[in-house]
From TrEMBL:
GO biological-process terms attached to the record: ergosterol biosynthetic process; farnesyl diphosphate biosynthetic process, mevalonate pathway; isopentenyl diphosphate biosynthetic process, mevalonate pathway
Protein name: Phosphomevalonate kinase
Lineage top rank: taxon: Eukaryota
Reactions the enzyme catalyzes: (R)-5-phosphomevalonate + ATP = (R)-5-diphosphomevalonate + ADP
InterPro entries cross-referenced by the UniProt entry: Erg8 (IPR016005), GHMP_kinase_C_dom (IPR013750), Phosphomevalonate_kinase (IPR035102), Ribosomal_Su5_D2-typ_SF (IPR020568), Ribsml_uS5_D2-typ_fold_subgr (IPR014721)
Protein species of origin: Kwoniella europaea PYCC6329
Pfam families recorded: GHMP_kinases_C
Pathway it works in: Isoprenoid biosynthesis; isopentenyl diphosphate biosynthesis via mevalonate pathway; isopentenyl diphosphate from (R)-mevalonate: step 2/3
Lipid biosynthesis as UniProt keyword: yes
Species lineage: Eukaryota, Fungi, Dikarya, Basidiomycota, Agaricomycotina
Amino acid sequence: MATSKTTTVSSPGKVLLAGGYLVLDREYSGLVVATSSRFYSTVTSLPKSTAQDKVILSVRAGQFPKESSTWTYSVNIQNDRLVINQINENELGKNKFIFIALFQILSLACEKIATESSLKGLDAAHELLRRITDDGNSDGLDIVVLADNDFYSQREQLSALSLPTQIHSLSSLQPFTPLPRPIPQTNKTGLGSSAALVTSLVASLLSHLNIVTLPSSYPQSNSNHDLQLVHSLAQFAHCLAQGKVGSGFDVSSAVFGTHIYTRFSPSVLSPLMDRPLGSITLSSPTLLPALEPSQWDQRTTAFRLPKGLRLILADVDAGTDTPSFVGKVLTWRKENPEIAKKLWDDLDIANRQIERLLTELVAREGQVDYDETVGWMGERHIEDVSLYSFSDYSKRFLVPICDYQVRVGRIRVDMSVLEQHKENPTAVLLYEIRLTLFIIRDFQRRMSELSGVPIEPPEQTRLLDACSELEGVIGGGVPGAGGYDALFLLIVDTPSVVSRVDDLWSGWKEMSVCPLLAKQSDGGLKVEELDAVKGLKEALSR
Ligand SMILES: Nc1ncnc2c1ncn2[C@@H]1O[C@H](COP(=O)(O)OP(=O)(O)O)[C@@H](O)[C@H]1O
Ligand SMILES: C[C@@](O)(CCOP(=O)(O)OP(=O)(O)O)CC(=O)O
């Protein structure tokens, strides 16, 4: 490993802060925040063995039991096709996400080589095999995928070490902590393991094989052609493996980081969805024209959370199985078009309001009072109602939000504090952000009541309300599709606020609440130096 070329690419996990369900529709958008917890794919050459005459791609899920988590594939040319077969399918079963990603990566690589050189058809496939085997010096590629601990529930690991489910315990676990059971028997935390896996695989392999050139640091804009090609291939492979075309916000943030996302038209993928898997026809290109970034119509609008605020996440274990909510919500929407349209439109206004307010707060970061005000808020209840009368606020929203019985007034109000800060625009924005988070939650509960799907179930309402009463907590919600599994809070980023939240979660009785270590991260896909990622080198050599 020391001598051969090594390529590591990481992709962040995701939290859909606003826009669940709406983002499935191109008319609306979603606010997706990428996380500091990442998925790492590392590609290097396999050693050359005399016995082996096949070209091999080996993919190992590095923190899972080796014997059940190493998928091995052979790649060879048969007649006029490039054929990919899993060698150990009988013993291990398939990993659809890995197989489909590899298959599409090789298909695109053949087409790119044929398009960009004089090598066509079979010659392009031979060139690809030459690159995979490092000019015949290796049996193929050794790929190890490792996910930050946050992607999987660490409850068992903590309990084995007699540690409480608190942030300091999680920080004491070794990076890429080995997990005892195979992936299907391991609980995920909702950061989007398959999207981050597929994206990091696509990027690391295409880059290792010199098919794309990735930016060496976080790109300043999303207009880099190769990055966009990685995006469209990862979206395609992920949809195919999932067996459905979702909104794709998870893959988009795995590539581009935090942003406001408007989905691609599902029709860009329809011509590709029925292509057979397993063998690649080496005639005219079919993937490249469909994946060409200019054919894709998704929008990614730059966004970041303001300085001094932190996104904090919890994995909730309510002992309830969250079924797939999407089908039910969309069926209800179809059956109730008028009422659903009004709800979708009003919730969208609230979602866009939160984006706008956070962006306005970012614009105030340079003001002299900014750090002081944010820090000051960290030690106080962030009261929400007195700065505006309710009707003032609904004017800003331009909708009669009273229709939805927004539950303001539950939070304790200290008039003297408000009087003092009325003229401080940074404080006002923080109050407005808090109020808007409450309003979004109210709309989501309305969606729950109407559709019969527990998007913000009462157990989560109680927990979120209790968290929102803590000093320095601006507000929160259920991310993505909602349900019982996870929650997010937006807090003032100081150790005392984090520790208040941590204490409340660890003492919560109604559900088991385990924090994640992740914070928000602006950046998306990243080419990594092995030594710069804590614990990665050690985990790779385990
Ligand atoms: N560390 C990993 N190594 C290999 N495959 C993984 C890993 N983590 C997740 N996967 C793949 O992703 C699938 C989980 O995808 P999915 O159920 O969509 O969950 P998520 O919402 O986390 O993406 C797993 O069944 C497995 O195929
Ligand atoms: C409903 C949705 O809009 C958001 C779902 O977000 P989650 O973060 O809940 O997603 P999973 O990782 O698939 O569990 C569906 C979509 O946009 O595809």
